[in-house]
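Work Package 3 (structural annotation) set out to generate three-dimensional models for the target panel prioritized at the project kickoff. During this period the team completed the workflow that converts sequence records into discrete structure tokens, so that structures can be stored uniformly alongside our sequence database. As a representative example, we reproduce one entry of 203 residues exactly as it appears in the project archive.
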Amino acid sequence: MSNVVLNRATLSAAELPAYAGIALADITLVDSDTLADEAFAALMATEVIGFDTESKPTFAKGEASTGPHLVQLATETRAYLFPVSHAHNRDALKAILESPRLLKVGFGLGNDRSALKSRLDIELNNVLDLGEVLRGRDHRGTVGAKVAVAHFFGERLQKSRKIGTSNWASPRLAERQLLYAANDAQVALRVYRAWSARRPAAH
């Protein structure tokens, strides 16, 4: 995991073609027992999944976050979005996120462990924060998905601040929210695959 690959040169990437991302038809909003079962089967059938969470933003000083409100998990072909307000999602999420066999990869996962523990009593297991492992020697802080997509794919990941700070606790998520959330999880998996392919073989 010490093989760092990114540096500040990546940050100055010129205008790049847009990253296409996942299609709406390949996103499942897990809002029933049947869909929770389907998502569990698909996610546990693989070895690595993309992982992210979204929370309703807080704006008032001293206001405590009640998130995460949405958990996003992705395979190579599909993304599954779990609104945590649905009780039937809890068991499936707990089993997936606590699985020691299944690797969960994502960006900026620093707060997810404590938030999932306090909100859902979930102990994250086998998680890899790409923002940490992709950091180059002259790059302070963690690497974000935008930098990674530019580096590995030569494309521009578009992330709307307006969507990112929207109400993720809403009972009805807009299509743009679904796409934003799904891409956050799936792009992590795709970056992980690209990074793994470039790493020297272990001896």
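The chain is about 35% helix and 15% strand.
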